[in-house]
Design goal:
- Helix content is about 55%, strand content about 0%.
- The protein has helices spanning about 10-25, 30-35, 50-60, 70-75, 85, 95-105, 120-135, 135-140.
- The protein is globular and about 55 Å long.
- The two termini are about 25 Å apart.
Length: about 140
């Protein structure tokens, strides 16, 4: 399976700087997790401790963790932004989750921690590749 291209140059520096800023600012209060409209849609997140999940996200940012709840949250995050106003520290949890997802998906060069069946972008990629390879009639029949 082909790995996503790793960001280079200015983007890589931006991601590094944002990661450091987030790690320094986040108090692990869990309010971003509590505000997320997607958490009810992941069975792994049922009854999860918001503070523990956020701690797991921060471990992902440090490329240290494999917390199943943190990985589950990155898998269901749709970047709604509901978490942003909930954060009392102006961390920008939406950016935190975006970087955590890049990290968990192996997009920053590390280990891929999200299984294909839990990767919310998986079926979008399947559809895109199918459109490149199938005829119009096959697309109508199969998609």
């Amino acid at each position: 399976m082909k790995r996503e291209a790793m960001p280079t140059g200015a983007m890589k520096e931006f991601i590094r700087a944002e990661t450091e800023r987030i790690l320094a600012a986040c108090t692990r209060c869990g309010k971003c997790f509590e505000a997320c409209p997607m958490t009810p849609y992941s069975p792994v997140l049922a009854g999860a401790d918001p503070k523990a999940v956020v701690t797991g996200i921060l471990a992902l940012l440090r490329e240290e963790g494999n917390n199943p709840e943190a990985i589950g949250w990155t898998s269901v995050c749709v970047r709604s932004g509901s978490c942003v106003p909930a954060c009392p520290e102006n961390v920008d949890p939406k950016m935190m989750m975006r970087i955590a997802r890049m990290t968990a998906s192996g997009g920053l060069g590390g280990e891929k921690r999200i299984a294909a069946r839990h990767d919310r972008d998986y079926f979008d990629r399947v559809r895109a590749f199918a459109k490149l390879q199938l005829t119009e009639d096959e697309i109508k029949d199969w998609m």
